[in-house]
Design brief:
The longest helix has 20 residues, at about 190-210. It is globular and about 60 Å long. With about 300 residues, the chain is α+β, with helices and mostly antiparallel strands. It contains ten helices and eleven strands. The protein is about 35% helix and about 25% strand. It has two domains: about 1-160 and about 295-300, 2-Layer Sandwich (Ribosomal Protein S5, domain 2), CATH 3.30.230; about 165-290, GHMP kinase, C-terminal domain (Alpha-Beta Plaits, 2-Layer Sandwich), CATH 3.30.70. It binds adenosine-5'-diphosphate and ligand LJ64HWYM. The site of adenosine-5'-diphosphate has 21 residues, from helix 1, strand 4 and helix 2.
Length: about 300
């Protein structure tokens, strides 16, 4: 017997300034994957697009590991596992490629085996594999998500802003793995910095929810991770300033970086070009893309 499933998963921008490991937004950039399960054959992985030639095509591949985690959990075994990946989300740039890969593998395998796992169970498994919930939540549920770890269980709240919001992402040429960008973070922060972030993340969620985007100028400020990661992304502050100078409400590091993301409701091209130019003045080659909020999250498309 053989089964085929095709899944589409959005890229995500996590943290959004002060919401470290908690806030995430699903973006209108997508990777797709096809999963074929069969009683005969072996493991085979083919890649088109981002990461071709770089991503492992053996049992070290995280999509394969996600598929296998579902098969183990539901007690099914397949000799032949064939994965065809169509990767559009840039790798190790802060747009949640690993979360999309994990979520895609889990959802494809769950669908192929009769949808026995709930979305919440998928969310829990994805969080364990990814290590933090803020990318996998919007990748699964779409929209803007707030995630909280309750002991080992992730809990989420999803919402859409009252008004349309666009995001302009400046994508530098270089990669920065999330693992590396987490290693520069301190173990502890001061009470002053904690209060700085708590107040801003509350303002951020209120501003996004109500569509009062003028608050984003302050609501995107952060003292928990961005100051420490600044050394890894040359030109970070200059790019933020360039985006705001061209009319963006505010800007932040996308996930762990190195992408920088500006929030706006107009002038995306003007903002994007200014961000790329500011990067270039710091000897960083970059390009930009304009995105909006994905409302659906991951979905089975075939
Ligand atoms: N489609 C994919 N298939 C397999 N592995 C992937 C895929 N996309 C991403 N990865 C893995 O995730 C890593 C990037 O994850 P990470 O450093 O968290 O950055 P980000 O999630 O921001 O792109 C890649 O180096 C690769 O190992
Ligand atoms: N909260 C995480 C988010 C990482 O996002 P990614 O898209 O860079 O993987 C962090 O800041 O480490």
């Amino acid at each position: 017997m053989s089964i085929t499933v095709k899944v589409r998963v959005p890229g995500t921008t996590a943290n959004c300034g002060p919401g470290f490991d908690a806030v995430g937004i699903a973006c209108t950039i997508y990777s797709e994957l096809e999963l074929f399960l069969s009683d005969e054959g072996t493991l085979r992985i083919e890649i088109e697009g981002e990461g071709k030639g770089r991503i492992p095509t053996d049992s070290n591949n995280i999509i394969y590991q996600a598929v296998q985690a579902v098969l183990d959990r539901v007690g099914k075994h397949y000799q032949g596992i064939y994965l065809k990946l169509y990767n559009k989300i840039p790798l190790a740039r802060g747009l949640g490629s690993s979360a999309a890969a994990i979520v895609g593998g889990l959802i494809a395998a769950n669908h192929a085996t009769g949808n026995t796992l709930t979305q919440e169970e998928i969310f829990s498994m994805a969080t364990i594999i990814e290590g933090h919930p803020d990318n996998v939540a919007p990748a699964i549920f779409g929209g803007i998500t707030i995630s909280v770890m309750q002991d080992t269980q992730p809990v989420h709240l999803r919402f859409m802003p009252e008004k349309m919001l666009n995001m302009v992402v400046a994508i530098p040429e270089f990669n920065l793995s999330t693992h590396t960008a987490r290693q520069v973070l301190p173990d502890t922060i001061t009470m002053k910095d904690a209060v700085f972030n708590i107040s801003r993340v509350a303002l951020l969620i209120g501003a996004l929810c109500k569509g009062e985007f003028h608050h984003l100028q302050y609501a995107l400020e952060d003292k928990v991770h961005q100051p420490y990661r600044q050394e890894l992304v040359p030109g970070m502050q200059q790019v933020f300033d360039a985006a705001v100078a061209k009319g963006a409400y505010g800007a932040a590091l996308s996930g762990a970086g190195p992408c920088l993301i500006a929030f706006t409701d107009s002038n995306c091209d003007r903002i994007g070009k200014a961000m790329v130019q500011a990067f270039s003045k710091c000897d960083v080659k970059a390009e930009y893309i304009s995105l909006s909020i994905d409302i659906e999250g991951a979905k089975v498309i075939e």
